[in-house]
Specification:
alpha/beta; Nucleotidyltransferase, domain 5; 5-stranded mixed β-sheet; 25% helix; globular
């Protein structure tokens, strides 16, 4: 396997005191450098956003990305059993310059590296660990990757993944300068207190909109709110569940949403996150 030629991607399921979470793993096949993020979802935006952040952390893009046959990447199979990737994944791959591939069905050997990485994550990091919430879990995992997983002597290469990554990084493709903007949108009704819900978090909506339903377009970093194709607000995309993004300009009375969901009984995360106002003309130009 040549440096920079391939990465493998997969999800693993974990049970926690605050519910089921999923670990998205990305491992470079040559250096064995590992990146992990825990999430509540396995949806397509989580996969694309995770890959984006993994490429940033690894310092470049591998030429091939090998997926397990997850539905967020593979839409079906052709007559010969070959994978048919969904359109959004193909757009994302073209933007970053890599070729997507899928593991062969019932051929465990094709995904051996990532399966061993999942086992190592369970045994070396997760079991016996305590954490407050998803944010704390990810912070501890990032420290473990930096201080343990990627600086240990790997059993196969007999070298540290971090040191091999330094040699592999020049062989990775450069990160694109332009941001990737997903194409799918969702309709959401505006609540009586002026919020919309997305993936268990609440986002404020400007007062005075003419319709009770607006469209959401989630990018890898932001959530766009649109009315009749016009961007009316942009919020940073929140991780976890139970969060609230409130732009002070949206609610003259400073209303916060009703508390419909709690993630951790010991931590009150419903304090609203105030959002800086952004010039909407920038996002309108992207929509064309």
């Amino acid at each position: 396997m040549a440096p920079g030629s391939q990465a493998q991607v997969d999800f693993a399921r974990f049970s926690t005191p605050f519910g089921v979470v999923y670990a998205l793993l990305v491992i470079l096949s040559w250096s064995r450098a590992l990146w992990v993020r825990f999430t509540f979802q396995q949806d397509q935006l989580t996969v694309l956003g995770g890959l984006h952040h993994a490429f940033l952390a690894l310092g470049g893009v591998p030429r091939t990305v090998l997926f397990d046959r997850m539905r967020t990447a593979v839409a079906g199979a052709d007559a010969q059993g070959g994978a048919l990737f969904n359109a959004e994944l193909l757009r994302f791959a073209a933007h970053y310059g890599f070729s997507p591939r899928a593991c062969r069905p019932y051929r465990a050997k094709t995904k051996g590296r990532v399966e061993r990485a999942i086992s190592y994550l369970r045994q070396g990091f997760f079991y016996g660990r305590t954490f407050r919430d998803l944010e704390d879990l990810n912070a501890q995992c990032a420290a473990w990757l930096r201080e343990t997983a990627n600086v240990r002597v790997h059993g196969t290469t007999a070298e540290m993944p971090a040191e091999r990554l330094e040699r592999e990084r020049p062989h990775l493709l450069p990160l694109p300068q332009a941001s990737y903007i997903p194409m799918f949108t969702l309709g959401r009704r505006v609540s009586r207190d002026g919020f919309v819900s997305y993936n268990g978090n609440a986002y404020s909506v400007p007062d005075g909109l003419s319709k009770a339903e607006i469209q959401l377009r989630a990018t890898l970093t932001d959530l766009w709110l649109l009315e009749d194709g016009r961007v009316v607000a942009v919020h940073p995309l929140l991780s976890g569940r139970g969060g609230c993004a409130l732009d002070p300009a949206h609610h003259r009375r400073g209303v916060q949403p009703a508390k419909t969901e709690r993630v951790d009984s010991q931590t009150d995360i419903w304090g609203a996150i105030e959002v800086k106002r952004r010039p909407l003309e920038v996002y309108q130009r992207v929509l064309g």
